[in-house]
Amino acid sequence: MDLAGLEFAAFRFRLKADDRFNLPRFVGSTLRGALGISLKKTVCLARDRESCTGCLLQPSCVYTYLFETQKHESVPKFRTISDIPRPFVIRPIPSQNSSLLTFDLILIGRAIELIPYLIFSVKRLEKSGLGPKRDRFTLMSVTSLHPEGEKLIFHAEEESLSGGWFVCSEEQLERRAEEMPDERATIALRSPVRIKSNGRLVSDLQFHHLIRALLRRISLLALFHCGFEVKADFKRLIEAAEGIRRTGGELKWIDLERFSLRQKSRVKMGGLVGEVEFEGDMRPFKKLLAAGEWLHVGKGCVMGLGRIEVIDGRREESGRASGREVEGSGGSEIGGR
To answer: Which of 1, 82, 118, 176 is most deeply buried (CB count within 10 A of its CB)?
Structure first.
């Protein structure tokens, strides 16, 4: 699979509350909503309009591109697709310290150069506060993540961007793919994974479900945000994925909810978390899985859902995989095999 044109960059934001954060369990949704509102207030030059639809500035608007991504009618192959994936992922980092909030913001393709707008928008939230109780905070720092660690690009004392940032490409994906096992892999679902098959959410997760969803997501991100079409034999890849056997694992369904401002109601956003073992020839899929580790899979990726990680050839003891926590807890368990 050729992913030579795929580019993304990861930035880590560290926030410190004036007192403590009182945020909902589904903090990714809170961050997504607050950041969108703040960015719109920052860049919108037509604030008297009730809707962005039909705005003269819409084709070049930073807010529209990031949060209300428009379908490209110039791409006939995808005219039937109504929802183009947004070019970013918000990934909350679990913490036991209620006065600190850390999250990664992963920007894809053309969105990478918009990081100054997003840092400014988070800074703007310092005054209005975050969450239902409007928790005041200070944006302490923003770092660029790269294979060797982190590079500081913004600090509260400086309030200006310093230097450039690291952009991940196919080279980093290939290096990560080389670390993955060839025949037997355990995939950890670090945040709720919502994949649909035949119009229904998948509860009995098989390898081909993951691959179908990853092929769709990575292909659309590449086309609409990186400007290239993924070249691969999709039919053969899916057929090969159907031959990968699920040999074990412990998954459970976590129920999450978020409040939708657009629908004026609460929306269920639950999904599968845990670990699942697969056995078979993993080699054709390793680079795709490496991309999925960064760009997530399934529904709700912009809010941090769909985070996966290939952790080992065998499943680790429950709760010990890489020493990381899963966002959310509780729910009903689903199967082992």
So the answer is: 118
Topology (CATH) of 8-155: Alpha-Beta Plaits (3.30.70)
Q: Are 115 and 108 in contact (CB under 8 A)?
A: no
pTM strictly above 0.85: yes
Burial 267-304, CB ≥16 within 10 A → b, else e: eebbbbbbbbbbbbebebbbbbbbbbbbbbbbbbbbbb
Q: For the segment 1-18, what is each residue's pLDDT rounded down to a tens digit? A: 889 999 999 999 999 999
Q: How many CA atoms lie within 13 A of 240 on its CB side?
A: 15
pLDDT tens figures, 119-134: 999 999 999 999 989 9
Domain 170-334 grouped into CATH 1.20.120.80: no
Would you list the DSSP string of 28-86?
HHHHHHHHHHHHHHHH-S-TT-S-STT-TTGGG-HHHHHHSPPP-TT-GGGTT---PPP
**Domain limits, the chain:** 8-155, 170-334
Do the domains at 8-155 and 170-334 have one common CATH topology? yes
Q: What is the mean pLDDT of the chain?
A: 87
Report residue 101 as tokens. Answer: 């909030």
pLDDT at 331 over 70: no
pLDDT tens digit sequence for 9-61: 999 999 999 999 999 888 999 999 999 999 999 999 887 887 888 888 888 89
Task: Please check whether residue 333 is in contact with residue 250, taking contact to mean a CB–CB distance below 8 angstroms.
Answer: yes
Contact, 298 vs 262, CB < 8 A? no
